[in-house]
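Catalogue entry: protein

Sequence with per-residue tokens
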Amino acid sequence: MPPSQTVLVVEDDCNCRLMVQAVLQDEGYEVGCAANGCEAIEYLRKAGPVGLILLDLNMPVMGGFEFREWQLATLRFAKIPVILFSGHHNLARIAESLEVSGFFAKPFDFDVLLDAVQGAVRATATV
């Protein structure tokens, strides 16, 4: 996943975040984690390059909507692909409005997660 094999998982549910982290690490990805948008911003500012962001929408402190708005307005991070994962009922329309690379609904199957990540990796590799 050029330029980085790191996936940032932004999810407030600790159990979900840890499960996603474990599945991605088993597939060879480096994984950073944040419990909300503010933590994600801090992670991006301090960590090395991130190749993909998995983003929940409904989180305390700063949700996915606000984080994505910040990301798109911040040139340094605007081009990092984002995949939404949420239980929101209107996810397809939200994904389109937030200009993300993909989305999948919660609860999800981990095969769906891996397909979404691998699809984003392939798309990034061809750019």
User: Anything to note?
Assistant: The longest helix spans residues 110-125. The first strand starts at residue 6 and ends at 10. The two ends are 11 Å apart (CA to CA).
